[in-house]
Amino acid sequence: MIEMVIDSVRINLKTEQRVVILKTLNEDRNLYIWIGQAEAYAIASSLQGKGVIRPLSHDLTKSIVEAMGCKVVHVTVSDCILQQRAAPMQHA
Predict the structure, then answer these.
(1) Whole-number Å distance between alpha carbons of 38 and 8
(2) How far is CA 61 from CA 4, 31, 72, in A?
(3) 40, 21 contact by CB (below 8 A)
(4) Cα–Cα distance between 10 and 7 in angstroms, integer?
(5) Which of 28, 30, 33, 89 has minimal CB crowding within 10 Å?
(6) Helix and strand tally (H, E) in the chain?
(7) What is the mean pLDDT of the segment spanning 46-60?
(8) How far apart are CA 4 and CA 9, in angstroms?
């Protein structure tokens, strides 16, 4: 398993597609994940410590996990099916 952190959220100026860039901690490797506009805004706002006006489904998931007294320990990108990444969460 390779540990990664969010490096940035960017916009391709030609196509206007959004991408979140994950970066390895120990190596110079990146993983690019194309995401939607709303998701890009939500991730960028969170990284900047800002809230969002309209919560998305991941905000609901986060609230449920926290209400159970848990926290997400890590997420593993374990598969890529039809260009969709499968990433089960592990919580404690």
Answers:
(1) 15
(2) 21, 24, 10
(3) no
(4) 10
(5) 28
(6) 2, 7
(7) 81
(8) 14
DSSP structural state of residue 42: H
Please give the model's pTM, rounded to 2 decimal places: 0.69
- Residues 15 and 47: their CA atoms lie apart, in Å, by 24
Q: What SS3 class is residue 28? A: coil
Q: How far is residue 32's CA from residue 25's CA, in Å, rounded to a whole number?
A: 15
Cα-Cα end-to-end distance for the chain:
19
Q: Which two tokens stand for residue 67?
A: 């209400």
Query: In the chain, where are the structural domains located?
Result: 1-51, 55-92
For residue 45, count CB atoms less than 10 angstroms from its CB and return exposed for 0-12, middle for 13-18, buried for 19 or more. middle
